[in-house]
Design goal:
This protein is an alpha/beta fold and 349 residues long. The chain has helices spanning 30-41, 53-56, 78-85, 105-123, 144-159, 179-188, 206-218, 237-247, 259-269, 279-284, 312-315, 344-347; strands at 21-25, 45-50, 68-72, 90-93, 128-132, 164-168, 171-172, 191-194, 200-201, 204-205, 226-229, 235-236, 253-256, 326-327, 335-336. It is globular, with a radius of gyration of 21 Å.
């Protein structure tokens, strides 16, 4: 009896140098999962370092068996950060918070934690470090968030002069906390609230940010550089809220919130679990968040910026009346849900 043919196996990732290791701090977060996916595709052993290695376990299917390794390594813990970096070729720091649980968290995470990762990466002989900061990083920022991000950049470059700094604007993607939040509000409220409506943003796709991280690691010319990452469109906050209404099929009116009322809402938001809206975030809304005209960005890293219209309407379809079901004329009774309408760029990350 002839032997039975073996079942075909999925193609394994193309290996880099033997056992090349990349440590990603914050790898289980929104941007992190896209970075982990790209590193795994390049054949790296990826250590996903963070506070919750169990949650990071969901990333394991992105690589071969044993290729993605969750580790307990909060960036506030010297010993665990040292362990996570031991033997690594590359390191990426994506850790960031939008609100403090207790006073001083911004400095502990964005400044001290970032400096710790850079210092220990240098001591471990790491070849390349990418630090993901924010476009609002500025020592003169009115927000503690912006000032702590700027302090973190300074500490990173002091400890690891060849580190690459990436400063993204507002990052969008299927799991984002911006468009999804306001789409949910549009479903619940009769009007769409607008605060600091003239403030401008340059939203950048999460997949493009992840591509920028990979390019910065692999391109020698990116060492020691600072890149400002923005998408192809600059939109005011008011225009973004109008777009959310259009993408979700809502006909609400935009309602301008007076600054006094906004401050009261922010104070109350700080008392809610999760602190969804804070006075520090309100201060950030007072400044434009766009790429400076002379700053190198995605194009300098060989990356084409993805427009919002290619991605956002698909993942906001679930907020449309009827749950995003679309009936196509002439197609009989066939219906497709929002998830069926995702473009290939979104399904493939």
């Amino acid at each position: 009896m002839p032997p039975r043919p073996m079942a075909s196996r999925p193609m394994t990732p193309r290996p880099m140098t033997p056992r090349s290791v990349a440590t990603v701090f914050g790898g289980a977060g929104f941007i992190g999962r896209y970075v982990v996916q790209r590193l795994a595709r390049r054949g790296f052993i990826v250590r996903v370092a963070g506070r919750d290695p169990i949650a990071a376990g969901v990333l394991k299917p992105m690589g071969a068996v044993g290729q993605i390794v969750p580790l307990f390594a909060p960036i506030t813990d010297e010993a665990h950060v040292h362990r996570a970096l031991d033997g690594a070729r590359f390191a990426v720091n994506l850790v960031g918070i939008l609100a403090e649980s207790r006073a001083g968290d911004f400095d502990r995470v964005h400044a001290d934690g970032a400096g710790r990762v850079a210092r220990l990466a240098a001591a471990a002989g790491v070849e390349g470090l990418v630090h993901v900061s924010a476009l609002g990083a500025d020592p003169g920022s009115p927000s503690r968030y912006g000032r702590s991000k700027a302090a973190g950049e300074q500490l990173v470059l002091q400890a690891f002069p060849g580190a690459t700094i990436l400063r993204p604007s507002l990052v969008f993607g299927p799991e984002d906390g911006f468009f999804n939040r306001f789409a949910a509000l549009a479903r619940l409220l009769p009007v769409m609230p607008v605060i600091s409506g003239e403030t401008r943003f340059q939203p950048v796709y999460v997949g493009d940010v992840a591509d920028a991280v990979l390019a910065a690691l692999l391109r020698p010319e990116a060492r020691g550089m600072v890149y400002a990452l923005g998408g192809p469109e600059v939109r005011s906050f008011r225009e973004l809220m109008a777009a959310v209404l259009a993408w979700t099929g809502r006909r609400h009116k935009l309602m301008e919130i007076p600054m006094g009322l906004a401050r009261l809402q922010a104070r109350l938001g700080e008392m809610v679990p999760g602190r969804p809206f804070t006075r520090d975030q309100l201060a950030m809304l007072g400044r434009d968040n766009v790429v400076p005209p002379d700053a190198p960005g995605l194009a300098a890293l060989g990356i084409g910026a993805t427009p919002m219209d290619m991605v956002v309407p698909a993942y906001l379809a679930r907020f449309r009346p009827g749950g995003g079901r679309v009936v196509f004329p002439g197609a009989g009774n066939a219906e497709r849900t929002g998830s069926d309408l995702f473009p290939a760029v979104l399904r493939e990350g």
